[in-house]
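Homework help board

Subject: predicted structure for assignment chain

Our instructor gave us this sequence and asked us to write out the predicted structure in token form, then describe one feature. I got the tokens but I'm not sure how to describe them. Can anyone check?
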Amino acid sequence: MSTYHGPRNQPPRRRARRRPRPGPRRRRLVAEFDDPTGARHGGMPTYPWHMAPDGLATKRQLLALELRPGGQPIAAQIMWMRHGQPAVAYLYRIDAAKPKRIPTLAQLHAIEKALAARRTCPLCEVDAGYTIPTSLGCCLDCSAPTHQPIEKGLAA
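My token output:
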């Protein structure tokens, strides 16, 4: 007769040791990056992640508000740790930001034309519907080893 060695008859597994919580270290980093006067960071007011004052925004936040920095100097910075290294995001004043520029119809037409050229295969001259990879230089159909490229001007 065989013995059942299922989950109930096995000895209890050892639990993995828990890592220490990063509480004290995180507090130290927040204190390290909290420098509203800029004394420790070359005169640039510095704030920790999510602690910037109202009225300041990053370029992406300005873009979401349909604004742009408009040539104004950097007002402050946010610092945080990313992969063990300090990372920085620059902040601009919202009240000094200018409205985002709107392209003219001619500029939009030029962009559409350029994107269409990137989608057109140079071998079969067909709009592939996606950007042609520069590593291949042609559409995926033409780059397939079993496919014979269509002669120019005979594309359907």
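Reply (TA_rk): Your tokens look well-formed. For the description, you could write something like this. The mean pLDDT is 82. That's the kind of observation they're looking for.
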